[in-house]
Amino acid sequence: MCGIVGYVGDRAATPLLIDGLKRLEYRGYDSAGVAILNGKGIETRKAAGKISRLEAVLASNPVSGNSGIAHTRWATHGAPNECNAHPQMDCRGHIAVVHNGIIENSTSLKARLVELGHKFVSETDTEVLAHMIEEAFDGNLEDAVIEALWQVEGTYGIAVVSSDDRDKIVAARKGSPLLIGLGDGEYYVASDASAILSQTREVVYLDDGDLAVLTKDGYRVIDLRAKDLERTVHKIDWDLSQIERGGFDHFMLKEIFEQPETIENCMRGRLLDEEGTSKLGGLNMTDEELLKFDNIVITACGTSWHSALIGEHMLEELTRIPVEVEYASEFRYRNPIVNDKTLCIVISQSGETADTLAAMREAKNRGARTYGIVNVVGSTIARESGGGIYVHAGPEIGVASTKAFTSQVIALALLTLKIGRLKDVSVVRGKEIIHALRALPGQVKEILDRAAEIEEIAEEFKRAQNFLYLGRGYNFPTALEGALKLKEISYIHAEGYPAAEMKHGPIALIDEMMPVVFITPHDSVFDKVVSNVHEVKARKGKVIAITSRDEPSLVGMLDYEFRIPQTVDMLTPVLACIPLQLLAYYIAVKRGSNVDQPRNLAKSVTVE
Ligand code: G6P
Questions:
Q1: Shared fold status for 3-237 and 251-445
Q2: How far is the C-alpha of 36 from the C-alpha of 3, rounded, in Å?
Q3: For FRET with 418, which of 222, 381, 494, 592 sits at 20 to 30 Å CA-CA?
Q4: Residue 347 alpha carbon to ligand 1 centre in Å
C-alpha cells in the first residue's frame, strides 16, 4: 500500500503523475516511483523518502511519454528503500506493476517462478505479480493480468503497463480501492479520487473482481473471465479535503471506521483453523526456541502500553509464562531482570518511539531475544528487533491511536495462540479463539453501524470536567485506553482504574457531576463489576456502561448503556474499545477540539 495513480492520453504523463502522487501525500508513505512508456520501452524512476526526492531524481534524469503509472509506497514487505519502491518490473523490464494490498501466497508463487528461471531483485510481494504477468504474457496485457490474478490469494489494487502492449493501462481491484477517471481522450486510474480531482470529476469506481483496460480511446471494465461489465459513471462533488478523509470529517473517525478491515488485515494468512493455532512468518524462532523462555517482558509507551497490558493477561492465562509490562521510559533506566531466557516484546505503532527503542536496545544488551509488534514496516524497531509481527493497520494519521491499538491486540492474540498451543492449550480451545477472531471484523462493523447511539451519549456529557473509566480483568487496560483517548483529544481530565480499586480513592470524587464509564461485558469478572456499578449509583454518579447482554443485576442501575457483541474474554477489549474511541471522538468534536492534531501531542515521539 499506499497510493496509485496512472495516466494514458496525449499529454506529458510525468507531471500529471507527480501531481497525482502529491495529492496522495496525506496518506503517509515512505518511497515513491513512476514508470513511463516512452514510445520505445518503459523507464522507471524511484526514490526512497518523500516525493520531492523523486522529483529531484526526475530533474536530473528526466523521462517523458504519454502514459504511465506511479505509486507512493507504505512498506508492508521489505524495507522502504528504492529497490522495494514500486513500480516493480519483470525480468526483461517490459512489464511494470504498482500495487496496494498484500499477496498472501507470494512466497509459494515466488518459489515456483524462481524454479522457472525468474530473477527477483526486491523483497516485495508485488514483484511476484510482475513476473507472473510476464510468465502469462502472450501479446495482450489484460489476458496476462487475468491469468496471473487467478493464481493470486490476498488483496490488491493494481495498475500495470507493458512495452509490448503499449499505451494501455490494465487495472484490477480486489479488496483495495481503485477508480478510473474519465477525461477527454485521456483516462486515469487512482486508488483515491483526490489524486485526479484536479483533472476530472467523472469517475468509475471499480468493484472487487473488476479489471479495467484503459487506452486514450476509451475504457472497458471486465471481470476475470473477460466478460464486459456495466459500471456507473459518478460525478464527484466533494472537495479535496473531504476526499482525502474518505468522506469522514477527520482522519481519526476514518481510522476508527477502518477497523473491520485492519483487524482482518492483521489476521490475514495467519490463522490455521484446523490446527487451532497461528502462523507467524516473521517470528524467526523455532518452536523449541519459543518454548525455552522463562519470562516475557513487554515494553511500550502510550496506547501501545495499553495493548501490552492486554497481552500480559492473554499470555499469562494461556501460556503460563510470567509476563511483566513496563513503560519503556521506566524500563530503560531501571536495572531490569532480563537475560538470555527472557523474551522482550516491544510494541510500537511507529516503530520509532525513542523510549521504546532505547528499552529494546537495553534488553538486547542484556541478552534478551527482542520481538517487535510494529505497524510501520522498515522502522527502526522493526529493523533492530530479532523478529516480529507487522500489524498491517496501514498509515495512521490521527495522532490519537485507534486502529493500530486493535491490531496490536490481535497480534498479541496470535502470538498467545501460537505459544499457548505449543504448551497446554487444547486444539478445541485454540479453535474457539480462532472462531472468535474470525467473527471480530463483522462484530466491529456492527458496533460502528450504531455510532449514532454513542454520539447521543457524547452530547449529554460534552460539558463534563472529569470522567472515570472502570473495568476489570481484560478490560482494566480498556478503561485506561478509553480514558487516554478522551483526555488526548477532548482535554477533559479522565482516569482509568481497575473497578474494584475505585473504593481506595476515586470513590471520593463521585457525585452527580461525575460520569463513570464501566466496561463490563459478560466475562468472568462481570459479577464483580456489578457491585462496583452499585457503589457508584449509590453515590449518584452517572453510569455509562458498555455491556454485552441483558443482565437483571443491572436493571435500573445504568444511565446509558451501549451493547457490544459477545466474544471470548481475551478479545473483549477489541470490541469494548470501539465505543470508547467513538465517545472520545464525538465529545472532542462537540467541544471544538482539533481532533487529528491535539495540542501538545505528537504522533511519533522521537525524543526522550
Ligand atoms: C505518542 C502518540 C500515542 C502513541 C505513543 C506511542 O504519544 O501520541 O498515540 O500511543 O506515542 O507510540 P508508538 O508509535 O510507539 O506506538
A1: no
A2: 17
A3: 381
A4: 10
Nearest CA-CA partner of 574 in 398, 424, 394, 391: 391
- For strands 156-162 and 169-174, give the pairing: antiparallel
pLDDT class for 272, splitting at 50, 70, 90?
very high
Per-residue model confidence (pLDDT) at position 352: 86
- Architecture of the CATH domain 3-237: 4-Layer Sandwich (3.60)
* CATH superfamily, region 251-445: Glucose-6-phosphate isomerase like protein; domain 1 (3.40.50.10490)
**Cell numbers found for residue 500:** 474494584
Beta bridge partners of 4: 71
Q: DSSP secondary structure string, 293-307?
A: -SEEEEEE-HHHHHH
Confidence of residue 243 (pLDDT cuts 50, 70, 90): low
Peptide bond connecting 87 to the previous residue in cis, omega within 30 degrees of 0: yes
Question: What is the CATH number that goes with domain 453-590?
Answer: 3.40.50.10490
Q: Write down the domain spans for the chain.
A: 3-237, 251-445, 453-590
Ligand 1: which of 256, 350, 595, 597 to mutate, most ligand atoms within 8 Å of CB? 350
106 lines ligand 1 (CB under 6 A): no
Instruction: Point out the residues that are catalytic.
Output: 2, 603
Q: What's the pLDDT score for residue 79?
A: 85
CA distance 228 to 553: 59
Q: Is 401 in the pocket of ligand 1 (CB under 6 A)?
A: yes
Q: Whose CA is nearest to atom 8 of ligand 1?
A: 603
Query: Cell for 312?
Result: 500480559
Burial 165-192 (b: 16+ CB within 10 A, else e): bbbbbbbbbbbbbbbbbbbeebbbbbbb
Ligand 1, atom 7: closest residue by C-alpha: 302
In the reported structure, the alpha carbon of residue 296 is separated from the centroid of ligand 1 by a whole-number distance in angstroms of 22
CA distance 282 to 266: 13
| pTM as predicted | 0.78
Among the ranges given (113-117, 273-277, 395-399), the one the predictor scored with the smallest mean pLDDT: 395-399
C-alpha 482 to ligand 1 mean position (Å): 15
CA angle 174, 179, 184 (to 5 degrees): 150
Whether 303 lines ligand 1, by a CB cut-off of 6 Å, is yes
Tens-digit pLDDT profile for residues 284-321: 889 999 999 999 999 999 999 999 999 999 999 999 99
User: 302 in ligand 1 pocket by Cβ < 6 Å?
Assistant: yes
